[in-house]
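Chain A, query sequence.
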Amino acid sequence: MESLAGSTPTARVQALFPYLPTFRERATELEAQVQRQSVPNGRELDDEALAARKLEYEYFGSFLEFLEEEYVPWQKKLDSLHAQGMIVFELIWALFQPGMKVRVLHGPSGEHTAARIIRGEQVEHLNERVSRNSIPQIWGPFRLYGETVDWKENKYTHTPWKFEISRFKGPRMISALPAVELTAEEMIEFQERGQQFAIFAKEQHVERA
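Chain A, predicted structure.
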């Protein structure tokens, strides 16, 4: 990995950090396949396929080891910021993990919506004048994908949800972000509010009928 470390710009390596959880899962999956000598569907690997999988695991493991080493100072920065209740945009991906429930502020109305995150991604907007092999100069927003609960046809249903956090400069208080982790108290409040709305909506439906 020396050649990679010597030729890869820091900014380009940094762009890979949001994918660390996915890379770690892939490394674990490859290791398990090599040990079991089979793929997830149960099909056994022949000698040629097993050798190829071992080689993939070796190279991927080296790549992941390099990336983890590069991430160490950023992890320290993240820990320091967390201790102060702050975050920078370049590390915002570390806040929002799959399965996390968030409270989102929508528009000038000041209304809040609860949602469950499925995944997040950094959207990159590249200047057309920037060559394909150069470092991205313009970063777009951080986009969250998940699901929320909407009232449709006299019942609550899970619906797809998408939300963007605009790029910002310098440290920012996590509590000031437009999307923050939902506390247990807020979750109870949302549930109670939903139950009250459901009762009201059904009563109105009966009256109209």
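The chain is about 45% helix and 25% strand. Residues 79 and 181 are 17 Å apart (CA to CA).
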